[in-house]
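Note to self: keep these together.
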Amino acid sequence: MRQIFVLCEQPQHVHHREAHAWLRRSLGDVAALDSVHDVRLTSLEDVEPAPGPWRWLAGIGLEEGTRPEHLLRRGPLAELVVDLRLVGMRPELLIVPDHSEGIRA
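Structure:
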């Protein structure tokens, strides 16, 4: 499954809890898309060692045949990325092709 990962920082003018709730709501709009298989949000606040300035990691799994660039041009994901920039969360996106392989013991 192809995935889009979004890393973002804590905005300086918004409390962590408030930013987290807003991010969850916005990602809910992304999860509602037919082209999205699943969305996962991970708080990186207590990760050791600290991952630089990043405070959240969102993983967006895409349905087979979905092209990430279509989601990033318009719609809820494109709007989310713009909003993240506007509030100072400095998003970084990683588009990961489906080249994963299962590893068994």
